Amino acid sequence: MSKVNGLNKYIWTLKFGMVFFSVIIPVYNKARFIQNTLTSVLNQQFSDFEVLVIDDGSTDESCSIIQAFEDPRIRLIKQTNQGVSAARNAGIQEAKAPYIAFLDADDLWEPDHLETMHNYCLQFPDESLFNTAKTIDTGHQLIPAHYAITHTADYELVNFFEASRIEPAIWTSSVVIKKSALDWVGNFDTSIKSGQDLDLWIRLGMHFQVVFIWHRTARYTFDADSLSKQTSLTPKKMNFSGYANCEKENPAIKRYLDWNRYSLGIKSKLRGDWAYYHEMKKGIAFENLSIKKRILFVLPACILRVLIKLQPLLIALGLRRTLFK
Question: What are phi and psi of 133, to 5 degrees?
Answer without folding.
Answer: -65, 155
